[in-house]
Design brief:
Structural class: mainly alpha
Radius of gyration: 17 Å
Number of domains: 1
Helix content: 40-55%
Number of helices: 10
Order of helices and strands: HHHEHHEHHHHH
Distance between the termini: 27 Å
Largest sheet: 2 strands, antiparallel
Strand content: under 5%
Number of strands: 2
C-alpha cells in the first residue's frame, strides 16, 4: 500500500521536513487564532483560500465582508461545533476511533461543509472533498486528516471521495497505513515526527507527510 507504510523513521522525517514551509506558517497562524479566539472566521477563510479549498467555485466569506447572503463562515463554524467537539478524542491512528458516534459526526461535518462554497459550475456550486477535508482538518486541530487534495490522493492511489461514506473509507485507509508504519518501525507517529513538530495531532502529521513539498 502506498503512503508511509514502507518508510523507515528517517525517511518519514525527511518527508515531513520537505513539507512546504508556507503551509507550516499558515497552520501556526490558525492555531494561534484558535488560542485567543480572535477573528477565527476571518483566519479560517484566509487559510482555506490560500489552500485553494474551493477552487474553481466561490468560497463563503466572513460576515464582516458581506459578499453574499447567509450562511457566512461564522454560521458554518457554529453549526459544526458540536460535531467537532464529539471528535475531541478521535485519533486516526486507532481503528477504535471510528465509532458509530464518530462516523455520525463526520457525516454531519460533510453535510455542513458542502456549503463552504456557494457558487460555481462544479458540483452545482457546492464544495467537494478538498474543501470539506481541509475545513475539518483546521477545525479539528489536525485530529481528522489528511486533507484529500490531489497530491495526497495521488500518493494513496485513491479517487476523490464523493460523499461522506467514501470520505470515511478514505480516512480508514489512512488509519491502516499509519498502523502499518508504526508496527514496522515499533514507533508511534508522534515519536517519529521531527522535534519541531512535536505535539501536533496525527491527522495533520500525516497530511504533512503526504502533502506538497518545498518549491
Amino acid at each position: 500500500m502506498p503512503g508511509i507504510a514502507k518508510l523507515n523513521v528517517k525517511e518519514f522525517q525527511n518527508r515531513i521536513l520537505r513539507f512546504d514551509e508556507s503551509y507550516v506558517t499558515d497552520w501556526r497562524w490558525w492555531v494561534n487564532s484558535l488560542n485567543d479566539q480572535r477573528e477565527v472566521a476571518d483566519c479560517f477563510g484566509r487559510v482555506l483560500r490560500r489552500w485553494q479549498a474551493c477552487r474553481p467555485n466561490r468560497m463563503r466569506r466572513a460576515r464582516n465582508e458581506a459578499r453574499h447572503e447567509q450562511p457566512y463562515l461564522e454560521d458554518l463554524i457554529a453549526e459544526s461545533n458540536q460535531h467537532i467537539w464529539a471528535l475531541q478524542s478521535f485519533d486516526i491512528r486507532l481503528p477504535a476511533s471510528f465509532t458509530h458516534q464518530a462516523r455520525e459526526s463526520l457525516e454531519q461535518l460533510w453535510d455542513v461543509f458542502r456549503g463552504l462554497s456557494y457558487h460555481g459550475q462544479t458540483r452545482n456550486g457546492l464544495a467537494g472533498v478538498v474543501g470539506i477535508s481541509k475545513a475539518v482538518l483546521l477545525l479539528s486541530e489536525g485530529r481528522v486528516g489528511p486533507a484529500f487534495d490531489s497530491e495526497v490522493r495521488r500518493q494513496l492511489e485513491i479517487q476523490a471521495p464523493e460523499n461522506a461514506p467514501e470520505w470515511i473509507d478514505a480516512l480508514q485507509v489512512v488509519s491502516r497505513d499509519i498502523h502499518a508504519f508504526e508496527r514496522a518501525n515499533q514507533c508511534s507517529l508522534q515519536k517519529a515526527v521531527p522535534v519541531r513538530f512535536a505535539g501536533i495531532h496525527s491527522g495533520r502529521i500525516y497530511d504533512m507527510a503526504l502533502g506538497p513539498g518545498k518549491k
